[in-house]
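Field reference: sequence -> structure
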Amino acid sequence: MKEHSMDFGATFETGLSYGEFLEQFGTEEHRTRWAGVHQSVQLSAAQQELLAGFTREMKVLVLAGAWCGDCVNQCPIFDVFASATSCIQLRFFDRDASPELAEALSTCGAARVPAVLFLSEDNFVCGRFGDRTLSKYRAMARTQLGAACPSGLMPEEGSLQDLVVQEWLDEFERIQLMLRTSGRLRQKHND
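Structure field:
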């Protein structure tokens, strides 16, 4: 496996905002689909309160494709999160226009999207997540593998979108807590 020495902090600075990404890489049809998903994402009061309580800056680098069904169903969630707190800084990159980044963030041997890389305020890698959440993979397994799938999992309660939103929020919260409890960052911020 090739080791990547990409400067993710410098790369992050060259990324596009959510709107810029869709404007540059999406067709009118893509933008309409993304807008529909964006409007359908509803955060609960508890989810909004959680995001409002974030205190550490999080740089979130998102490798995506405006054409990608998994991206249209997940990337708007990230923008909704970022709208709920000033601590989340999102930057988007098109997979096909960013081959070096796509290679560095490859998953399961391919440039799968969305691929999300979380950075600290001072550009240390804190985590990666994507291309789909567990709930999405469970739904796919039920459809593609049928009832004989030996997972033993019971169907989830709630809509798939609500489950995916919560799973992404869990990951954003995990990274926020990593940053919040970091001894290095607590010393830096004197908290």
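Note: The longest strand covers residues 58-64.
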